[in-house]
UniProtKB/TrEMBL annotation:
Protein name: Transcription termination factor Rho
Biased composition (Basic and acidic residues): 52-62, 70-87, 142-166, 173-188
GO cellular component: cytosol
Pfam families: ATP-synt_ab, Rho_N, Rho_RNA_bind
Gene name as annotated: rho
SUPFAM superfamilies named in the record: Nucleic acid-binding proteins, P-loop containing nucleoside triphosphate hydrolases, Rho N-terminal domain-like
Composition bias type Basic residues, residue spans: 128-141
UniProt biased composition (Low complexity): 98-121, 250-272
Organism: Phocaeicola sartorii
Stated family: Belongs to the Rho family.
Binding site for ATP: G421, K422, G423, Q424, R425, A426, K433, T434, G435, K436, T437, I438, R464
Keywords per UniProt: ATP-binding, Helicase, Hydrolase, Nucleotide-binding, RNA-binding, Transcription, Transcription regulation, Transcription termination
EC number(s) from the headed UniProt entry: 3.6.4.-
PANTHER family membership: TRANSCRIPTION TERMINATION FACTOR RHO
Amino acid sequence: MYNIIQLNDKDLSELQSIAKELGIKKTDSLKKEDLVYRILDEQAIVGATKKVAAEKANEGQPRKRSRINVKKEGDKVYTATKDKAQKLEANTPQPASATAETVKEAAPAAVTPPTEAVAEASAEEKTPKKRGRKPGSKKVTAKTEEQPATETKETVKEEVKAEAPAKPKPQKAKKEETPATPKEKEVILPELEFSGETEDFIPIEDLPSEKIELPTELFGKFEATKVETPAPVQTPAPKFQPRQQRDQNQKYNNPRNNNYNNPRQANNNNNNTAAEGEAPANIPQQPERKQVEKPYEFEGILTGTGVLEIMPDGYGFLRSSDYNYLSSPDDIYVSQSQIKLFGLKTGDVVEGSIRPPKEGEKYFPLVKVEKINGLDPGLVRDRVPFDHLTPLFPDEKFKLCKGGYSDNLSARVVDMFSPIGKGQRALIVAQPKTGKTILMKDIANAIAANHPETYMIMLLIDERPEEVTDMARSVNAEVIASTFDEPAERHVKIAGIVLEKAKRMVECGHDVVIFLDSITRLARAYNTVSPASGKVLSGGVDANALHKPKRFFGAARNIENGGSLTIIATALIDTGSKMDEVIFEEFKGTGNMELQLDRNLSNKRIFPAVNIVASSTRRDDLLLDKTTLDRMWILRKYLADMNPIEAMDFVKSRLENTKDNEEFLMSMNS
């Protein structure tokens, strides 16, 4: 403990070291004077805490103090009368009075005249009936005083017997008295040995008397226990042991350190056993441990799902589709070890358990991976990369018509003249205001209704915000959009994440359909973002800018052993922009299905405004059965001489009068 003068004389570094020893934090920012007062305050707090802890420890041992209290009274009497033991051979009340006086000196407030009378009466009767161990109240004090008197008397008799073993008469008298108080003798002899040990002497005046009171009812129970307990076998060793040897034994056999040789403690244990079930108040109540409330763990309760985006440093985040796969507060952190363990890639749809961020963490971390792309993580780990999958021509047609008059006319026209298969790379070529967005919506709803196993993504790039809202509300598909008021970097980023997600799902065997509106504006965005290469095509298109949109459109394919990626994109023509013409020319030969819309049909309000003659699908023989293929061959030969308006009028009038396409084809014979 340091005082303020000692602390002021020390350097700042010494004060800081003292403060660290005391557990004071942030000492570097404190001045010397503030640090001195902080150290003084901390010393005071530590001292007070230790004092309170010591008091609580003492309060938890009230019964132990009571035993020391009785024992030390006996020690004082024995030490004071040790040399005059022969004078007290006759049974006189002198030891009782002397003992009473000793007890008075120890606790004067607890001694009263009735107590002295009780002590004298007990000395005359020579049979101590009560052994009080708790001098807290008057009754307890009276009972406590009886014990030293009797102990002193019996002690003197034992000493006389040990010093003069040749006298037969006193020995007989003592032998006669022995069965009267066998328990007291056995208890007293070790106490006399213990009395010679003065190294750990504790004066009774130093012990608090108000903390060691016992209820009066317990003494009757203790006495009943004494009467019922059978008398232990007495060992005659102390009778034949010389005084010098006894003094030697007490030096080495300290009953404080040897509980087996302490019969008083054994007697105390018996009393505790007897009163265990009847007097729970006798047991000191330990302070209840306050349970520190741990914060509730949400680990394993919360689950999160998102599309993985791996950062250049190796870790990743699960992006939410609610924010179009961009950075958001809902992002879930995925560690680098988890990415390597499960073989995760950018675009994987990961579902797993998450937990709230701890102190110092910013994101919700992923705790356990439960599913990857809807499959077990063990199956996904050994998948074949998308680039190494074998592409095939589409051989399974999307059924756009259920049958009946409820089918949409646009879907029936597309299903007949330009069938769409799983893995189709379709291009809808359209002028402005020809109804291409509505046509895409009808096709999407038809696929969703007839093929629920297909996962559809509606990707709207550089479109109007109101169209995004309408598409999200009217199409049963995932809508990802980047409106025209967003920068080109955002267009490119969203398109890249959607394509990676589709590839990862195809690797796991899923059928995915992407509706892209429009690929022309996506190519414009790539042209804006790409660095200048110095080679510029006509219309201001960079020579390398169209490579990435070509990769996007070229990813559509049918996989040999299951899984397919279908992309239905729109391309703008006749917009007055030379760049759009160049982009369309680049994509013109890449698709394997082309559906052309005519502005003249839309101007005459003929919808769907499909140019039937110019629309077709490559290798449609893999999608249609032979009967349908033959009938479509005849129908196309018949419509080839008509202009787009005449052909659409003819087909539309026939389709409106039939229930489905099969009925229309059957009616061709008539």
